[in-house]
Design goal:
Blueprint lengths: L1 H12 L13 E2 H11 L11 H9 L10 E2 L1 H13 L5 H9 L7 H22 L7 H31 L2 H4 L10
Antiparallel strand pairs: 1-2
Helix pairs in contact: 1-6, 2-4, 4-6
Length: 182
Amino acid sequence: MKELAELIDELSQERPAGWDSLPDIELYRDQVLSYMKRQHSLLPENVQLTGAMINNYMKIGLLPRANGKKYSKDHLVYLTAICSLKQVLSVNETNALLKLQPNIDDAKAFYESYLDKMEKAFRETSESLDNDNAGEELAATALQLAISSYAQKLACEKLLDILKEKEPPQKKERQIRRGSSK
């Protein structure tokens, strides 16, 4: 089946740009929005990042404030993570999860770790798809993936609850800020 082969190929190859491939110059908001579409080429158009979303992320401390009207490499890192995580988590859950990451203040270290985790997840998912499957087998595979996603989402939410309970009070108020990646 041609469509399945294309999906397997996309899941095997499509990834956000690595740290060294991110723009070194600061970008204006419209440029950031365009860049994020390329970072998440597998996402449908109706769930892509908007300027209003960026404003909201800055207001709640999920994203550092822009430098005037320009956004840095660090902003692109955090927005790349936010755009994928918000597909399965609420904005508040995404905020909590990112703030709990041990290397969140070092954008480069965080991003490299994030991309490693993404690579593993996408590789495992693409390997679980069998290009020879059709009809009922394909439907069963889709159901298994949906159930697996549900189970993983539940586990993630429970882990966040556990981490919030164990978190020291001063860490709870931490906001993502520009890292030492410059």
